[in-house]
Amino acid sequence: MDKYLPTGNDFVSLPRINERTGGIEDITFLYMAAKGLIDIRGSESAPLIQPYVHLNGDCAISPACLAWTRLDDWLPQSTAQLGSLELKTLYIPPIDERGFAIQMTVHNTSESAKDVVIGLNGCWASSWHCVNEDKPLSGKATCFRSGWNSSLIFEYHAGFPMFAFAPMADAQTDSSFTCSDDGSITYDLFHHCTIAADGTASVVFYWGLGFEEVAAATSAKEMLRQTFDVELTKTRTWLQERRVTFNGDAKLTQLYNTNLFFCMFFSTGITLDTEELVLVTSRSPRYYVSAAYWDRDSLLWSFPAILDADPKRAKEMLSYVFGRQRRNFGIHSRYIDGTVLEPGFELDELVAPLLALERYINKTDDKSILNDSDIAQGISLILNRLRQHEAASCRLYDTFLQPTDDEHVYPYITYDNVLVWKALKDLAQLAPQYAHLEKTADEIKDAIMTHCVQKDSAGKPYFGWSIDLNGSHDVYDEPPGSLQLLPFFDFCSPTDEIYRNTVAMIRSPEYKYSFANSPINEIGCPHAPHPWILSLANSLLCGRVEHCRAILEKISMDNGIACESVDEVTGYCTTGEAFATCAGFLCHSIREALL
């Protein structure tokens, strides 16, 4: 199975840089009018963009000899050598630019000059619309020569120009292209040069993205004018200002930072057509529910890590949430424009905006945000909607869907009600107009302790997963909303007897999804019956530090990036590749527990 080294910036994602070949298999970007993601793809036999070097007409670099590192834990760079030529290829999506660049540097180690061709070729085979499911677009792909230079323009029409992308280089290049009857376009973009003995040649290919040809070409031209060194320095400075170093642990440092940047650039992004910041599960089509919005995923998982790294970006996230997404708070999933994608009420999603808001204020002490009309209206809407789900006999709140988005067994879930308690208790401390919620929070805790605490056959108390207020409950746990986190939310002490009994039950070998006797002994659930990375993050947050360190040493996940679940023996990804919001929650838990 191929492995990938994703990278990206706010505007463009490169989700599939193939580790074996160095080829860029696709480019994705967010599009508000399409309510999701557009994916420009190569073919099965040829990637969208393939770097190459030719010596005397023959391919001088074999994909099998590529060795990879990440500059500042985010920018992929490969090195390769065949005979007397050394090639270094660096992929950089510059900060604040609508595009990306590929720098190819060839060093001639021989004692004689070499005639070399440095280039890119590839195939634009198809274009796709991605929101959970991937569906091909039915418009027309075109290619023509740019009026802005002698290079190429690739443009897509659906009655009018919908998007375009275009290359420019910082050296003299030649190009060719062919439009096939099946709608695919193949191209070649190349630079001829003679490299002296012990000499070096370098070419930077800039790719701009835009609504149509002028926007795409000038996006490339802007990077060209700024120069590669300026763009690289700006981008590296941005990354280094947000990187975290774990002293003496290079592997953990790389894992943390790569997942942090993957979270920042794949769980958020700026739309091409309206230039709005939006939040999504993942900008990679490799994730099985890509490019849609979940309150829980964005606000409970990715938001804490982004707040740790960039409070300004976190505030922009809240503006989007309490703006476009406000009217459908608590609904299962939505499109990026705020309209409903999948209906179904989820209690954890309803209170997630409150928990993120409180976390932001506690981190920044910026209480002025409460004066924003969107924020005030959002709080009021959540409190009103919460009352609609209150039990008639006590202060417990029902949900239709569990944190996995699967249907509940019983309507009152302990974990979800702890989130409600936490949200109202903290909100009561933020401003006088919410002080009355302190009493409501106390009543919620009393209701949880009265109705959600059960006893086993030996009389030991524990928290049931869900109840129906008629005497029924289940023993269960879900990594997306685990009972392990109750001390993390300050609901109880880690030494509390009820809590300890609960954790012992769900981590015991007798519990079907504990994986207690496996090398990767973390909790799963029927939604994905393998150990979850979210469960590993939960364990970090509830103090199982050495246990988690040992697992972090073993797991590969999705080539070093967080996924939904991993094989309980090998630690390789089993479900949910390129899970951007999970990457954020893993980072936050590592930072809280190990920094």
TrEMBL record:
Q: Which SMART domains does this entry report, sorted A to Z?
A: DUF1237
Output the InterPro entries linked to this UniProt entry. 6-hairpin_glycosidase_sf, 6hp_glycosidase-like_sf, GH125
| GO BP: any one term | carbohydrate metabolic process
The protein here is known as Meiotically up-regulated gene 157 (Mug157) protein
What is the organism of origin for this protein?
A: Gemmiger formicilis
Q: Show the Pfam families listed in the entry.
A: Glyco_hydro_125
Entry-linked PANTHER family = MEIOTICALLY UP-REGULATED GENE 157 PROTEIN
* Record Gene3D superfamilies: 1.50.10.10
